[in-house]
Structures are given as structure tokens and as C-alpha cells.
Specification:
Rossmann fold; alpha+beta; 5-stranded mixed beta sheet; 6-stranded antiparallel beta sheet; Dna Ligase, domain 1; 10 helices
């Protein structure tokens, strides 16, 4: 009998729109000869199974089950395609842990830690991983732009501390623009990270664990037409994503090794994507952030990297699901 897989999408943040795109792409590549999958929309109005005829069936949160035509469906595993809260910050993972339902993403502790950008770079720095100098701000503790610039040099990046898809993020080159950037970021989150700009080439790399080993996917170089790799650059075509990156093997090995090291240090599971700036003067990759539920839409980077490795997406998602058993 085939295992029953819940493909979880939606969410409670602005990233829900990306979650739906990821789920639409993933379901095209789930091997239905191996798995029966059910798309579950976790929405502020409720949790629902989304039927192929646009019908909606309420999920029983007591045991994360649904009832179809009088039959109770209990899931054997969860394929997580939910960006932002509650699928990327550890909340869902804790819920599934309580129910003893395995899932494809990092566990609750790693998800919660890496969702917080400041705590991510703090742990990374403690482990000897190169990161940018930064300041962590809280909405209820006012700090002046001048005091920030006493600690950091311009230009800086200002971004919500929790969240992804570059929503609410700004690059600030002049002191006069810093307060506006802080206000923009605080709309998205009660915590904000201000980070010194590192000049260099931007790379991103997916890493995932199979039952046998940890695999680093081919590296992508990001060349954006924007000031940085923001939402428009990521999802609306305002960037070049070169996969595999046109770099020599010694640099590729340095980035792969750094990514696998970080994957191990943070006790990651499933597929994650790590973003780096390579400082050519220091010849070091600087870790920017870790995305524990990276985008899987048609425009996303991880699917590009999977294909560049020579795998089909069907093989890839089967490998992720199989780690649950």
C-alpha cells in the first residue's frame, strides 16, 4: 500500500503567495506510483484539504487527519512547502513532533533558530563561520540611526529579522535614508537586523540529506539588475541566475565545504538553501542566511540546481520523502 503524504502549503505571512507557487510546482513532480499525496492549505481562516475539484475539507487538528467519503485519512509523512510562519519557524514542526508524524524539513529547534537571522549569524560566528557585522534592533527599544552608524559602516542592509523572500528589505547607502528603511522593515517584523554590506560575488547553494549522505547541489551565482536580490529580482525576473556558477573548482569546493559544514553545525534536515557573499579580497565565503524551506516554484533556484546535478525533480522529491521512513 502506498504511503499517504500531506503536501503542506499556505501560511500566515506575506510569503504565503510563494508557498502556493511552490506547492503547484512540487505536485507536478511527486511520484504517484510511490506516494498518495494530499494538498493541505494552512490558512488564517482554517486548515483545509484542497481537492482537485476545488473542494475544501476541514483538517482535524487533533491528529492532523481528514475524512473523505467516510474514510479517515491519517498521514504517514509531511512534505513541507510552507514558507514563513508557521512552516519555516518551527511551529508546525513542533506540532508534528507531538503527533509523531515525520516531515521533510529541519526540526523545530533548527527551524526556529535559522528563522531568526540574528541568532543564525550569532551561532555561525561562534562556530567560526564568516558573517557580516550586524546590529539587532527591537521595535519597543528605540535606537537612533546615528547610534547604529557608530557601530556599522555604510552601506548597510536593513531587513526584518524573521521572514524571507526579501520582503521589507532595503539597501541603505546614505545616513538620511536609514530611518525610512528601518520603518519599512518594522512593518514586517518586531525585530530588525542591520548588516554591513560585503562587496563580492553572490552565490547560493542548496544542500540536502538523503538516507545515505549529505549532498551539496550545484552552485548558483546571482547577478541582479537591482541593488540586491530582492523580491522582484527573485520572483519577477530582474536577475540572472547562473546555474552552475561559472567559477573554478577551487572556489566551488570552498563554497560547497562551507555549506556542508553549516548544514552540519545547524543540524539541518531536508533541503535548505544557503546564501553567501564571496569576499574576493579575503578569499572567504560569508554566510548571509539559511533558508530551511527554500522556494520550489518554477522560478526558484533549488529546482534549477537539482536539474543541473542531473536528477529529475521526481527523483529529488522522492529522496526527500524517503528520509521520513
Amino acid at each position: 500500500m502506498k504511503k499517504k503524504i500531506a503536501l503542506v502549503t499556505g501560511g500566515y505571512s506575506g510569503e504565503a503567495v510563494i508557498s502556493y507557487k511552490s506547492a503547484l510546482a512540487i505536485e507536478k513532480h511527486i511520484d504517484d506510483s510511490k506516494w498518495d499525496y494530499y494538498k493541505i492549505d494552512i490558512h488564517p481562516s482554517g486548515w483545509y484539504y484542497m481537492g482537485g475539484d476545488d473542494s475544501r475539507v476541514v483538517v482535524d487538528k487533533n491528529d492532523f487527519s481528514i475524512t473523505l467519503a467516510g474514510e479517515k485519512i491519517v498521514f504517514d509523512a509531511v512534505l513541507v512547502a510552507l514558507h514563513g510562519t508557521p512552516g519555516e519557524d518551527g511551529k508546525l514542526q513542533g506540532y508534528f513532533d507531538c503527533l509523531k508524524i515525520p516531515y521533510t524539513s529541519c526540526d523545530a529547534a533548527t527551524s526556529a533558530l535559522t528563522f531568526n537571522k540574528r541568532y543564525t549569524v550569532a551561532v555561525a560566528s561562534f562556530a567560526g563561520i564568516q558573517v557580516a557585522k550586524s546590529v539587532h534592533l527591537f521595535k519597543d527599544i528605540p535606537v537612533t540611526p546615528a547610534s547604529i552608524l557608530q557601530q556599522l559602516k555604510l552601506p548597510v542592509f536593513v531587513k526584518p529579522n524573521n521572514g524571507g523572500s526579501s520582503i521589507g528589505m532595503s539597501k541603505v547607502k546614505e545616513a538620511a535614508a536609514l530611518q525610512e528603511a528601518l520603518d519599512k522593515a518594522f512593518i514586517e517584523d518586531d525585530q530588525v537586523l542591520v548588516e554591513e554590506f560585503i562587496a563580492g560575488r553572490e552565490f547560493t547553494i542548496g544542500v540536502f540529506r538523503t538516507k545515505e549522505n549529505i549532498i551539496a547541489l550545484p552552485i548558483t551565482e546571482i547577478i541582479t539588475e537591482k541593488e540586491f536580490f530582492d523580491f522582484e529580482a527573485k520572483y519577477e525576473g530582474a536577475s540572472q541566475e547562473i546555474t552552475p556558477a561559472n567559477i573554478d573548482e577551487s572556489l566551488a569546493a570552498r563554497i560547497r565545504d562551507a555549506a556542508i559544514h553549516a548544514y552540519t553545525i545547524f543540524n539541518c534536515r531536508g533541503v535548505v538553501r544557503m546564501d553567501y557573499i564571496y569576499d574576493e579580497e579575503k578569499q572567504e565565503p560569508f554566510l548571509l542566511e539559511i533558508n530551511t524551506v527554500p522556494g520550489q516554484s518554477e522560478a526558484s533556484i533549488v529546482p534549477q540546481q537539482v536539474r543541473a546535478m542531473g536528477w529529475s525533480l521526481k527523483e529529488f522529491y522522492s529522496a526527500l520523502i524517503e528520509t521520513c521512513f
